[in-house]
Amino acid sequence: MINSALSVIVHAKPGKEEDVADFLRSARPIVEQEEGTRAWFALQFDESTFGIFDVFPDDEARQTHLSGGVGQALAAQGADLFSTEPSIQNVDVIAYKLPGETS
User: Fold this and answer.
1) In which band, very low, low, confident or very high, does the pLDDT at 103 lie, cut at 50, 70 and 90?
2) How far apart are CA 19 and CA 42, in angstroms?
3) CATH dotted code for 4-92
4) What is the pLDDT of residues 10-58, one digit of tens each?
């Protein structure tokens, strides 16, 4: 069951767009090791706006993810890569469709 999600929006500093894309690509192996992260997406909205959307069975798994490897990497590299602080929103999931699961 999926009940919780995160929506994260980041804005790359000028000239750092490809570095942000590479950073997001490099996060996948970290997220794959997180048992509570059921789905994870790295997104690019325009040239300098990127996002992450991920879903979890509960708030505990969401908090574990936030304090895990990707969250730590965002905090450590954010000042170098992003023009503003990441916008992080907790989201409640009301319905979903994932392979092998029903809401």
Assistant:
1) low
2) 14
3) 3.30.70.100
4) 999 999 999 999 999 999 999 999 999 999 999 999 999 999 999 999 9
Q: Are 12 and 82 in contact (CB under 8 A)?
A: yes
Question: 37-75: buried (b, 16+ CB within 10 Å) or exposed (e) per residue?
Answer: bbebebeeeeebebbbebbbbeeebbebbeebebbeebe
Domain ranges (residues) in the chain: 4-92
pLDDT score of 75: 85
Spatial distance between the Cα atoms of 87 and 103, rounded to a whole number of angstroms? 27
